[in-house]
Amino acid sequence: MKTRFRFSPFTPNAATLVGLLSVSLALATGCTQRTGDDQPDAYVPLELPDAAMPGDASMDARIGADTGGGHDAGSCTTMNLHSNIGPSMAMGTTASGSNRHTPACASGSSNDVWFSWTAPAGGGMFVATTAGSAYDTVVDVLTSCTGSSLACNVDGNGDGTSSAMFTVAAGQTVIIIVDGAGGASGHFVLGIEHYGAEICNDHVDNDGDGLVDCDDFDDCFDNAACIETMCADGIDNDGDGATDCDDFDCDGDPACFETNCTDGIDNDGDGEIDCADFDCDGDPACIETMCADGIDNDGDGATDCADFDCDGDPACVETICDDGIDNDHDLLVDCDDPDCGGIGSCVETGKCNDHRDNDGDDETDCADFDCASDPACTTPETNCTDGIDNDDDARIDCSDDDCSASCGENDATMCMNGTDDDGDGAIDCSDVECTCSSSCPPTTAPSTTCPDADVASAVGNGVFHGTIPPYSCNPRAAATCGNTDGVRGGELEVAWTAPAAGRYVFDTNDTSHAGGTFDTTLSVRSDCDDDPATELACDDDGGTDQLSSATVTLVAGQHVIVVISTYQVWQGGNVTLNIHAL
């Protein structure tokens, strides 16, 4: 006998429950006592045996009291759909129900309706769907009344209705909850569909997971229909889009291995012929055994010493390092070839004052690291008035730091001791080198201008160019590094503002502007004050040669004064300021 029950499962009314359980066999009137609106909460088509009686197991609706809250593990208010499968197993409304459940895949407090359902068979995929419902639904499938979610879906059908896919064993009972998204409720339709196991060669998505045949990896990865068994027939036997040796199933198959490495044939059909195929690595035919015959013996595209097979071969070592010939054919000649490292003709040692680049490394005499300990490069400039670079360091007489002690009346004491300390015929304040000494009266009033220039926030090489005349006095902002004991030379002050927070390098390295460099000192200060406390950084010889380089960390918009000065009072010339962000 087949009929439809109409009942409201969540009405906590004992009379209603008793009425439902007292339905007669004729089921002529059903249970009509209700509360709320005139529409039933759900219509559930059930198929009952002719002899079914109220309370009989075959008619069991698992009706329990609606407590409006939690429920025990053994019982919850549900409508029993038994093992029925079809597109419209239950229809009704959640509008007059209550909210007992928060779905695993949605939030909000929507009314919900609970159903129990038992799988008629195992295997394949089951889908609980609300297709045809009139509001934004959620479907949650639980293992039991208080169990975990097997599957949950919101708007899986793209139209506000939902489809939850799950797998269960034959005879397993689950709880299917029709809920709403974001507080929604309304009239619903609940259907249950079954898709069987994937058949891997029928071009049909049998299990409804969107993957057909061999594309369904989980179900068909080890199916015979999805394994390339013939690796040389030019056919995609398993229909996975990869034919023969291009299919990973054929890895290790004899048909996919280059067995003859000298026949000019792509034996395994992988697009690589003979020695170009990795299968031939180590094959005698694929090793360059003749490293000086000008022939690519193994056909790998690399000839003689250009082939890694020839590494260490005598023919591939540069043994003559001064003949101007690439003896080992590695495109590196003489001292440019690492094979010549340490060989006599490629070491500057012992030839550090002949003004020649003996080892061809573009570094001459003392500028070559080979000469770092050579006597010609460690003996100081002993004659500071002969116009000769005695120690071959490219600095002559007083331009060499070795002569700092004998070149100039270079401190306040010398400028008032009544002696011609530097032998230039001028004593004390009559010596131009004492012009800026505190022991001698100034010949001109000191400049009070600071800064001399403002370069705003310029960054790069040559943000400032200027000139410091020799024997100029400018004691406005004395640096705390460099010639702190002698008579200070002239200075230039340059204002600069940090464009952004970070570390900045200020240097006087100059290869383009100055006609000749001189020994500089560079100080970065917070203002023009001569107070040492305003100095942020100071450097004497941190740049190239005897030029300066100082690094300072600044905040965006911080204003600084960069002071560039000469190391000795008699020094002067063109100066360049470079500023770079690290």
Task: Furnish the topology, listing elements before pairings.
Layout: E1 2-7, H1 14-21, E2 42-47, E3 79-80, E4 86-93, E5 113-118, E6 125-129, E7 137-142, E8 149-154, E9 163-166, E10 173-180, E11 187-195, H2 217-220, H3 375-378, E12 453-454, E13 460-468, E14 491-497, E15 502-507, E16 520-525, E17 535-539, E18 549-554, E19 559-566, E20 573-581
Parallel strand pairs: 3-5, 12-14
Antiparallel strand pairs: 1-2, 2-4, 4-11, 5-10, 6-9, 6-11, 7-8, 7-10, 13-20, 14-19, 15-18, 15-20, 16-17, 16-19
Summarize the structure in words.
Strand 7 and strand 8 form a beta hairpin. The relative contact order is 0.06. The chain starts with a strand and ends with a strand. Among the domains are: 2-195, Jelly Rolls (Sandwich); 453-581, Jelly Rolls (Sandwich), CATH 2.60.120. The chain is mainly β and 582 residues long. The protein is built from 3 helices and 20 strands. The strands form 4 sheets. Strands 1-2-4-11-6-9 form a 6-stranded antiparallel beta sheet, with no helix packed on it. Helices cover 3% and strands 21% of the residues. The protein has helices at residues 14-21, 217-220, 375-378; strands at 2-7, 42-47, 79-80, 86-93, 113-118, 125-129, 137-142, 149-154, 163-166, 173-180, 187-195, 453-454, 460-468, 491-497, 502-507, 520-525, 535-539, 549-554, 559-566, 573-581. Residues 1-74 and 511-516 have low confidence and may be disordered.
